[in-house]
Amino acid sequence: MIKTCTFFCAFTLLIGASIARSADRPNVLMIAIDDLNDWVEPLGGHPDVQTPHMKKLAQRGLTFTNAHCQAPLCNPSRTSLMTGRRPTSTGVYGLSPWIRTVPELKNLVTMPQYFQKAGYRTLIGGKIYHGGNGRRKNSQAECDVWGPNAQVGAKPDKKIIPPTPGGNHPLMDWGTFDHRDEDKGDWKVASWAVDEIGKMSDEKPFFLSVGFFLPHVPCYATQKWFDLYPNETLTMPPIVKGDRDDTPESSWYIHWDLPEPRQSWLEANDQSKPLVRAYLASISFVDSQVGRVIDALEASPYADNTIVVLWSDHGYHLGEKLISGKNTLWTHSTRVPLIFAGPGIPSSKKCNQPAELLDLYPTLSELVGLAAPDDGEGLSLLPQINAPTTPRDRPAICTHNAGNHSVCDTRWRYIVYADGAEELYDRDADPNELQNLVAPGKNRDAFEETIANLKKWLPKNEAPLAPGSAHRILEKRDDGFYWQEKKIDPAAAVK
Ligand SMILES: [Ca+2]
Ligand SMILES: [Ca+2]
């Protein structure tokens, strides 16, 4: 492998101590988890949750406790992370399109491609891109090795929960039934990663991306994971009746008509606790699969020269704000686990500075001694990795369809919708974001300066919908809001 003096010197400075293959760049193990909110031990989002492997990873690394997705939905979030560009720059706001089908985006260099060009062997298994994206046409252009795609694996004969509104979507289910952990899709993805780690050669450094599907619905797990969360002692999240009384009507439009049931349906069907329990059980199961992969890494020759990063693509509501699911601009949807560990990364540290998932691209690049791509929109987190109290000016911005954004700094969350309606939360005093400080009738003037400071970070230009945009698309047109091309009738809101 060719190494330049520039790289070698920078890298030596960066990590100090020698590593197993000191002449080479570090490897990268990137673990992605789907729809995982802050209910993990390193973030403390749920008092009952048991995630020993993520806890252990956090103990040997750095956890960003104020990290947020760029879009609260799979495809736009993952597109942003993997390309280093905001949804407002690509126009990818929905579950479609895949970037390679869009003339203006098809040549974007994704993170694995960037590392591949720098001499890395790149592998992708499980859910890294949404759905089958990247695997269909010209799949070899995306990475060197494709592993198994994400799949549910074992399923019950029929849905466990009662038929859900909006067409009884087959994925909208949760509970336990007779099956084995080994029969689950995520088990197979972890097994693939374990095998690949065992087969790595020293010829090239590797960039191994491993994407887990749970706790995405259907939240199926075997009984032993449910046993960790007995019904009698289960802690329910803060579900506050009337919490939406101070949020604008347009806050309903961004998750207007979805398969994920409202809290009202969960309560009417006695599914509130079963969903929380199944989600927690699924998290603990997926944590065990994270453990299998990290254990394999630690038993390998690459234990000491591999950067591990773990993230989720967005959060998930379990009744908070009176809904289940994603597609909102509140903390339940935007806050994500983001943990780094490995050479050059301090252990047992937390950083509360705002971080964005699109920062991964420049951060991982710099962590291995590559220059960050000069056309990306992320900011390297290296200053915070080197000194976790280093302040960061830029807040974290999350977008759900054009015109709807939230801006989060170390204290505040400001939300603006496409019709100009606003929310402001003091997350120090109100971490669950219950009190909208700028609801009608409140004294907005008192927060004018705070809002102005946050608002200045909003994207200045917003790309129109990329060709082929579909699924969970909201548009503000001259005569009102449209959800999936159909005009929204505010009176028809299902709350
Ligand atoms: Ca997702
Ligand atoms: Ca409220």
TrEMBL record:
This is Choline-sulfatase. Residues 26-369 form the Sulfatase N-terminal domain. InterPro entries: Alkaline_phosphatase_core_sf, IDS, Sulfatase_N. Its cofactor is Ca(2+). Residues 1-22 form the signal peptide. It holds the Pfam family Sulfatase. It is an enzyme of class 3 (hydrolase). The keyword Cytoplasm does not apply. It comes from the Bacteria. Belongs to the sulfatase family. Its EC number is 3.1.6.6. One of its GO terms (molecular function) is iduronate-2-sulfatase activity. Keywords: Calcium, Hydrolase, Metal-binding, Signal. It comes from Stieleria marina. GO terms for cellular component: cytoplasm. The keyword Calcium applies. PANTHER family: IDURONATE 2-SULFATASE.
